[in-house]
Amino acid sequence: xxxxxxxxxxxxxxxxxxxxxxxxxxxxxxxxxxxxxxxxxxxxxxxxxxxxxxxxxxxxxxxxxxxxxxxxxxxxxxxxxxxxxxxxxxxxxxxxxxxxxxxxxxxxxxxxxxxxxxxxxxxxxxxxxxxxxxxxxxxxxxxxxxxxxxxxxxxxxxx
Length: 159
Description:
The two termini are 21 Å apart. By secondary structure, the chain is mainly beta. β2 and β3 form a beta hairpin. Helix content is 10%, strand content 42%. The protein has helices spanning 57-66, 123-128, and strands at residues 5-11, 16-19, 25-38, 44-56, 72-85, 91-104. 19% of the residues are buried. It has one domain: CATH 2.40.50.140. A 5-stranded mixed barrel has the order 1-3-4-6-5.
């Protein structure tokens, strides 16, 4: 059986890092992924999905040092579900990606960061769990990435 998740997206806020009583570090952060499509009228639309990511121990330490809000990141891990009771005794259910690896994809050449856009959804958009409104007309400010692969040979594909 396989439980594997791969995400490439932007951090919605800086990683929240805690040290547990056992001494283990844990970091949590939301990652936004975008899906672009044309609607019936031919206009480009963007759907933003939010994913809660958890990293443990050395990865938590790395996340604290290398990731920040807006960072473009590659995440690989597994999907987990857990149940807990809040302060009012109400059962709450959480779905998270527990990452076993991540890689910051930002380039820091000349002080600029690729993959970051001023139109990136804010932490407030994450908190309300509604897709943020964005300029979806395909302007240069969009944080989505598309590549023309019409001239790629099958032998050039990485898989």
